Amino acid sequence: MQELNIAFVTIGGLTLVLSLVAGFMRSKVYFLSEPMAAVLLGILIGPPGLGLIRLSGWADPFTILEQFARLTVGLAVMAAALRLPQRYFRDHVRSMAAVLVPGMIGMWLVSSGLVYLLVDAPLWIALLIGAIVTPTDPVLAGTIVTGDMATQYIPSPIRNLLTGESGANDGLAYPIVFLPMLVLQHSPERALTDWLLSTLLWEVGAAILVGAVIGAAAGWIESESRTHDFLEETSLLSVTVALTVAVLGGVKLLGSDGILAAFVAGLLFNQFADATDEADEQKVQETVLRLFTFPIFVFFGMALPIDQWVSLGWAGVALAAGILLFRRAPMMVVFRQTVPSVEDDRDALFAGWFGPIGIAALFYATVAHRILGNEFVWGVASLVIASSVLIHGITATPFTKLYGSVIDRVQSESSDGTDQSSVFTDGG
Q1: CA-to-CA separations, 283 to 56, 202, 358, 368, in angstroms, rounded
Q2: What CATH code would you report for 2-10+33-409?
Q3: What number is the average pLDDT over the span 166-191?
Q4: Is 80 exceeded by the pLDDT of residue 27?
Q5: 92: DSSP letter
Q6: I need a labelling partner for 118 at 20 to 30 A (CA). Which of 22, 138, 146, 310 fits?
Q7: Do residues 383 and 362 make contact, with C-beta atoms less than 8 angstroms apart?
Q8: What angle (nearest 5°) sits at the alpha carbon of residue 71, between those of residues 352 and 207?
Q9: Which residues are within 8 A (CB) of 326 and not within 5 positions of it... i.e. 6 or more apart?
Q10: 145-149, 188-192, 349-353 — which is least confidently predicted?
Q11: pLDDT exceeding 70 applies to what percent of the chain?
């Protein structure tokens, strides 16, 4: 009980302080992001530091991390779905298809290749770690594409692209994570059969179908209830949070991918719900997500396998740097021609850099640990996640401001050129 009270005081206090000074931190103390502060608190009060709290005293640490990460990612993908314009995926089919299919496969193979070459991992272990760190994290991405600074400096097409991708590819990473896990558990023939029939057709296909049906039904009922004055304000504001939890639990009971189902449910709810109510629900969803974001990062800080990182030596440092630099940016540059939101190399480099690795990867890493019990996978994956939290946290504010200032300068030069051309023509 004492450890629980310490957790309440420290995590609650951190959440209170960071919530009160969030704007100041983003503009002035940009080198210390909110997720980074939470991880540092976890290191301080956990076994790596003062040892005030040990997750192992509560339950299996990986079980705590997995379930907390699942709920946090579920809330995050629902928030991402509500944040998008209603017809976004329908209007950007080509862009999303490019980013979510060949783009994800490319990121998976690049990350896996770096693991295989730099830390001498067996092929299928390398493919598993590469798959774990492939998805763009909706929690960390949300801290970059939301808020006054994002609105001021990042064009809405880029914000929507990062939001849509981070929401969708967390669930779509499920099949690429489970393919190497199945191969590591079974013969290649059985693994391929299970992957095609169970993972793709049922766990992914059913998630999309069930999520769509539940989301559309909830949105339609909400809209009808609003029309007939059946809704009360207090009950309205709990709708999407309850929808997230219900979908995560219900779809998991069916043996399917609850995270993908939650995102699809959010998209369909977005289509059918009343637009005014949806804006209020988005604010509540973002608030609840914030309350869950700090604890999971604190727990992650408590569970960091620092001894394993040290054993990797400089190869671990090179791996983390290589994945952050080459996992995503080349993909965005290559697919720039098929993604209208990315107008030039400047947009491609910005969108390519800010594809952070976070709680979604943590969720898949803990799932892999539960199924395979491989400490090496956890050690390498956690190193990459922690590196992304650190580096993307430090660079978020300065890179965002630099990106916005470059856009302003280009637009100003273009406007000046147009004005001069107009004057010359008038004079002629």
Answers
A1: 35, 33, 22, 33
A2: 1.20.1530.20
A3: 92
A4: no
A5: T
A6: 138
A7: no
A8: 80
A9: 110, 114
A10: 145-149
A11: 89
- Size of the chain, expressed as the number of residues it contains: 428
Per the CB < 8 A criterion, the answer to whether 207 and 264 are in contact is yes
Q: Given this model, what pLDDT does residue 417 score?
A: 58
| Rounded distance between C-alpha atoms, residue 282 and residue 215, angstroms | 15
Residue 6 and residue 53 in contact, taking contact as beta carbons nearer than 8 Å: yes
Rounded distance, CA 281 to CA 269, Å? Answer: 11
Residue 110, both tokens: 């690049």
Q: Which of 56-60, 216-220, 301-305, 413-417 has the lowest mean pLDDT?
A: 413-417
**Mean pLDDT of the residues in the chain:** 86
Q: How far is CA 185 from the centre of its chain?
A: 28
Which residues, including other chains, have CB under 8 Å from residue 199's CB and lie 6 or more apart? 174, 175, 178, 179, 182
pTM metric for this prediction: 0.90
Residue type, 346: R
Question: Residue 233: which residues within 8 A CB-CB, separation 6 or more?
Answer: none
> Which two tokens mark 35?
């997720």
Which residue ranges make up each domain of the chain?
Answer: 2-10+33-409
Query: Cα–Cα distance between 62 and 60 in angstroms, integer?
Result: 6
On the question of pLDDT at 270 being above 80, the answer is: yes
**Are 389 and 358 within 8 A, CB to CB?**
yes
Residue by residue, what is the 3-state secondary structure of 73-104? HHHHHHHHHHHCCCCHHHHCHHHHHHHHCHHH
Q: Residue 119 and residue 377: Cα distance in Å, rounded?
A: 11
Place of tokens 């009160």: 20
Distance CA 116, CA 39 (A): 28
Is the CB of residue 77 less than 8 Å from the CB of residue 170?
yes
Amino acid identity, position 299: F
Supply 233's token pair: 């304000």
